[in-house]
Amino acid sequence: MSRSEPQQPATGKVMTDPVRYPTSASAPVRTKRGFALVVMTLLVPGSAQIVAGDRRLGRLALRVTLSAWALLAVTLLLLVVNRSLLINVITNQFASLVIILVLVALALGWAFLFINTLRLIRPVLLAPAARPAVGIALVLALVLSSGTLGYAAYLLNVGRNAIGSIFATGPSIDPVDGRYNFLMMGGDAGDDRTGRRPDSLSVLSVDAKSGQTAIISVPRNLQNAQFSEGSPMREIYPDGYDCGDVCLINAINTEVTNDYADLYPGVADPGAQATLEAVSGTLGITVQAYVLVDMAGFAKLIDAMGGIKIKAGGWVPMSGYFDEVTRTHGMPLGWIPAGEQTLDGEHALWYGRSREYVDDYSRIQRQQCVQQAMLKQLDPATLLSKFEDIASAGTKVVESNISSSQLGSFVDLAMKAKGLEVKRLTIGPPDFDASFSTVPDFDIIHAKVDQLLASASGPQAAAPVDSMVQASSVGGVLQASPPLRPAASLPAGWAAQQTPPPSSDFTPVTTTPDGEPITEELLNQLKREGDEEAIRQLVATNGQCAPQ
Fold it and tell me: Where are the membrane-spanning stretches (predicted)?
């Protein structure tokens, strides 16, 4: 006879206990008992077994429950005092696998307790009208408990697979001069290409303590890019990547992939690494890591987020086919209107890529705006509610050499950056004139970058007195200018009289100079008539953009 559940009660008093022996209870009491046991199993797993069933099983389940509560308390404490450590544990491939297995075991164990609780309820003793209600309550409680744990394990496994697919397993990186600098590359990987040609290059520079962020955009047509000290490509191009008009900075990836991969033994993507070194040398900073995003993946990621909200300064064409004879685009596939817009992935992709009727620098401003909109709108609520889709789309990030061991630190920095002003700089208009990318002055670039980062290195950070900076409002944010000096001594290519673009309170251009509303029909009619100059004037402000 088991000590934990005697078959014969020792006294009549035990026989009259309606919880352990429901046969002695009335029908209403049995119904209340059934609901009570379900609630007990939901709130304190094992408690129903202790009061009404196998006490040994109940004590074991209660120990597991208390241990789980203790782990939950530690997790909440880490969330408050050391969030980055918690995220590092969750994103670690081995630790996350252990957590998944524990969650699955807890879900199965909790489900077993509910089945055991159903046996303790003894539905045959319930009134016929009460049986469905108690059964439904038990099923709902089981889904709420075991189902939640099982779904959490599933989502964690989705995230684990995404992290393993996207991020590297190498050593962690240290901040340089108090900052992490990441090269963000957006590229197309067509079947007719060897390697990827990054059409978008920007450095995301983040203060390692405060999370203050600056975005530095490098035009894809920059010439004579300088390779950083120690770069193998510096031996090939000691004076910079200068071999004529074809030596644009976005061509480095393909050239190295095709011709100089042997200079990077053991490197997963020599072309991306060489591009990182060229951007480092050009800007005069150390870029520690890169992320290369395929454009299709970029669109899917925005779709997974539910789109992005922006305010567009002018109409943007979704370009049609390109006529090699006339060197013009055909009828646009569509138009993205000026004003407040919610863009899905396809339209956000076109918004960031289109450069018809305007120059590359208007496109760069729109790309910066899209990046900021994504950072602003990828909040915890969006991440949690759309986690599976976002994680799945994230695997479209072709590659990154960011170590997964540092994801906790970087996610923590991203959360700190929420709500902080993002400072911006473009190696081209409006910060430099349009010809500057052809004959860049790297001393000026380095000074401009240093002063920008100084202004983004703390709430009251400032450059030394002997190198005070001018402030110019670019896109509504503070930017640093080179040290003050006579205008006559400014180097060629420097835009001495820059006209900063409007801040986020700009008014979108939605009408013609005559007051006629700008519509897709009007723009297409001008296109059919061949009046591209009129279109150019109407869409001239489409580089203006602000995240909403």
Answer: 34-53, 60-81, 93-115, 136-156
